[in-house]
Amino acid sequence: MEGSGAxxxxxxxxxxxxxxxxxxxxxxxxxxxxxxVPAYNRLLEKAELLARFSEKLQPEPNDVTPATHQGPWEESxxxxxxxxxxxxxxxxxxxxxxxxxxxxxxxxxxVEKSAALGALxxxxxxxxxxxxxxxxxxxxxxxxxxxxxxxxxTRRARNAALRAAYEALRAHAGLQEAALRRLEEEARxxxxxxxxxxxxxxxxxxxxxxxxxxxxxxxxxQELKKAAKRTVSISExxxxxxxxxxxxxxxxxxxxxxxxxxxxxxxEKWKRPFRSASATSLTLSHCVDVVKGLLDFKKRRGHSxxxxxxxxxxxxxxxxxxxxxxxxxxxxxxxxxxxxxxCFGPNSSFLATGGADRLIHLWNVVGGRLEANQTLxxxxxxxxxxxxxxxxxQVLAATYNQAAQLWKVGEAQSKETLSGHTDKVTAAKFKxxxxxxxxxxxxxxxxxxxxxxxxxxxxxxVLSYCNDVVCGDHVIISGHNDQKIRFxxxxxxxxxxxxPVQGRVTSLSLSxxxxxxLSCSRDNTLKVIDLRVSNIRQVFRADGFKCxxxxxxxxxxPDRSYALAGSWxxxxxxxxxxxxxxxxxxxxxxxxxxxxxxxxxxxxxxxSVDQARKVVLWH
Length: 619
Description:
Layout (H helix, E strand, L loop, with lengths): L1 H32 L2 H22 L28 H143 L16 H11 L28 H17 L27 E5 L6 E6 L5 E6 L4 E7 L2 E8 L6 E6 L5 E6 L3 E6 L7 E4 L5 E6 L5 E6 L3 E6 L4 E7 L4 E6 L3 E6 L3 E6 L5 E6 L4 E6 L5 E6 L3 E6 L4 E6 L13 E3 L5 E5 L5 E5 L5 E5 L7 E6 L6 E5 L4 E4 L1
Helix pairs in contact: 1-3, 2-3, 4-5
């Protein structure tokens, strides 16, 4: 019933609309004929009056008297009303003529009105047609309106359902966020408890190690006291004293030799293998000093009495004597863009190169040639630095993609991504302790990483861009754009030392014994810093040598006898650290600025890379 009422209401409305239109039409047409009908009635009245006059003007035959029977002297009397006079006839004729004119004018007006009436009737028919079309259009629009109303109703129902589902999802998301916050809080609590347990365990281990070291030192002291009571004879052997552990062990072996009269050997002299050393005599007290120096050296290397034991890599063998390269043995052009970094592995026959093409190529040195081993893919940006861990099983690279990436040798895809920097990562180096690394970036931070969890364990904020980093046992050294080298203790929160240099620092290289640091800077010099006295010991310059970029790398030779760097014109410059003089300069395959150089641990090969995509092996 409601539907029929809703349908009947529009029908009654359009019927009333038609009735109103018809009444309007009647009023309009009536207004048009209001002037025409009175004029037409007046015309009929005048026509009727004219007809009566005409009847009066036509006399009957028996009433007409010839004009000849009447004399001029006869006057018309009152009885002569039946025959009008000529003047009257003329008057009547004039009136008849006027009436005819009026009748013609009225007839013309009737014709005009009739034509206007026809035009109005045609217009009326046209408007009726338009009205019918509009009524049909109105019916069509009403049908469309009903359909749209139905669609709106459907859409509103769907919107209501979606709004209810959205509210349900929002409530569920709120519950999930609350659960996530609770889980995060629990995780933080668990992590804090784990850290506390580790701290307690470390303290216990430190205490045990301290007791063990004290006992060990007591035994060593007793042995030294016993050895001090003996007389020692030492023959001339210029090769027994060096900078390594092997020479110190030989000294201890000599200290335990068969006792001989000390006075008979007091006058004998021997010479050190160093150029700057003078001849001295070796006595038992000197042996004691050597042993004490060994203990002090172990303390400097991180084996302090109270120090916790750390998982360290095995030591890389030290090169006895590096050989100066003289010629280029192999030249390759395999990268798609400039090559920015190169690094040798621990076995000296394995190296990696990285460039702006986001690829790291691994090479084998076989018979004086470079043979492709593997290509590491998946870097997010241009490679700025590569480094092998001391075991040679992993490769760490810094990229322009605000991250450092870790590969396992033998696997083409990246193993881990160390993300957290907000700008280009310019340097990435392994630490001597396992599963730890350090990165430097242009976002003015240096970060320490736990590689086991791919977690940033520490962030160091600096006032300047970091261009390179190197790592010692418990120290991190960073070179910066503000012409300063900063030293950071891994066990402390602050910078422990700052050494200013002239020019922006482009690279750092730490000697194997961690006693000397080589820096390269944009003032076109190399500087050797003695870390024992924290002072610049030597400055290397050469005519024609010039840094080609802010990431030009310079390195020590494995035995720290030479310093090597590449120049903007493609030449390699080698300085003798002992004399401070330029030992050699190599020119040849490179025709663009040399970005980085590497000297293998055996001291037999050098590799250089440049901005023209060349990789050159020197021998």
